[in-house]
Amino acid sequence: MSLNIPNDLKYTNDHEWGKLEGDVLTIGITDFAQSSLGDIVFVELPEAGSRVEKGGAFGVVESIKSVSDLYSPVGGEVIEKNSELESSPEQCNEDAYGAWMIKVKLSDSTELNDLMDSKQYEEFCQSSN
Amino acid sequence: MKQTSLFEEHKSLGAKLADFAGWQMPIQYSSVKDEVIAVRKNVGVFDVSHMGEFIIEGAETYEFLNYLLPNEIEKPAVGKAVYSPLCNSQGTIIDDLIVYKLENQKALVCVNASNIEKDFQWISEQIKNFNCQMTNKSESYSLLALQGPKAQEILKKCSLKYPDEYYSCLETDEFILARTGYTGEDGFEIFGPHEKIKKIWKQLMELNVTPCGLAARDVLRLEVCFPLYGHELNDEVTPLDSALKWTVKMNKKDFIGKKLLSEYAPKYKLIKLILDKGVPRQGYSVLNDSGEVVGEVTSGTMSVSLGKGIALARILVNKYPQNDIFNVQIRNQNYLAKKTPKAFISGGHK
User: Fold this and answer.
1) Burial status of residue B211 (CB atoms within 10 A of its CB: 0-12, 13-18, 19 or more)
2) In degrees rounded to 5, what are phi and psi of residue B203?
3) Which residue intervals of chain B bear CATH 3.30.70.1400?
4) Residue pairs spanning A and B at CB distance below 8 A
5) Structural domains of chain A, ranges and CATH numbers in brackets
6) Is residue B86 classed exposed, middle or buried when 0-12, 13-18 and 19+ CB atoms within 10 A define those classes?
7) What is the pLDDT of residue B350?
8) Per-residue pLDDT for B349 more than 80?
9) Do residue A64 and residue B281 have CB atoms under 8 angstroms apart?
10) What share of residues in chain B are helix, strand, coil (percent, to 5)?
11) Above pLDDT 70, what percent of chain B?
12) Inter-chain contact A38–B304, Cβ cutoff 8 Å?
């Protein structure tokens, strides 16, 4: 399996990606995650203004046959959610790194140190495959 | 963990495999969605070799089956297939199965993989006073389900004989072929020895028949509202609780569970729900419009054909809402669920 893992992103071992711009982390699920889940049919995301915790469940992604929690790579305040995914959840399959889910304003930037870079994440995927 | 005779084929096709009733079974190959669409519009094939097969033979084969099962087995002609629940003397459901009437004194009974031993034991106890014998053929048969509007065309290309009518069967030197399935589409189930089934599978792959996994099978059966043991059916409910009244023939002479079923007031009603938003899943609560729990979802999924959440739900008769308004609770939120009288999809079988 060839993995699509952009090297400008950060990753968690729950297969979320994060892209840092200033003090805001844009979060989604990786290509590996969407491919393991299969056809994604439902995405539930938190409203702007709600708070998420590092490692805490912030939403849900459902494939035809499964329900999976989404875990936030960092703690902070949700400043925007991608409402488009709620009506077009298949975007997660079509373009995992374009289909961002939420943007979180970091409350503690040191939490970023716990995330993997693309090389580490690739190794992680291969060992868990 | 058991493997079917096609295990290596599944692996080479890149199937996702998972444990199902003690078997390592293909859950999906390409995508559940594509596999469902293939069966609805074209043709797909499932390896369902985990299913159990019993042969019952002898002078009193059909007398026995008519006593064993709530549905009418004797009257249909040889060559027909009959669906029935298998009930205990309490009238609750041990399993559901299909009887294939192969000959005057010989029937094939196909049961769920997870219930093979339980069923065999139960039926062995009941058969003692009848002049017929049962053999468990589950280990010696493989089983393919070729399903979809183009299934007949494909069988012709394979030069296989097939039964003309829906819910009928025929036996050749090599196979037992039945026009049955679990998808609501036209299609065939092919029982046969492992090596011969393997050859058919390879032929089907060369003819570009879509290999389909158990995930697609579950979506397909739920779209046409076929019950599944362990979900809609279990040994705590009767057929009268489970939308299977049509399989209980009270006018028959006698059958196991008849007395209890004839006096039974159903506790549950099985209903069909469709949601505009949200995906219902097994175990989710069903509420009335004042928020009171009135039942639970027995099976739920996103329907590929409708693009909406669909569910079968078991509702307590004594809490059944007069106004027919239901909500499904999904992660502490209530989603309006519309009750529908007909199956979500009608299927294309003849």
Assistant:
1) buried
2) -60, -45
3) 53-136
4) 34
5) 20-108 (2.40.50.100)
6) buried
7) 57
8) no
9) no
10) 25, 35, 40
11) 100
12) no
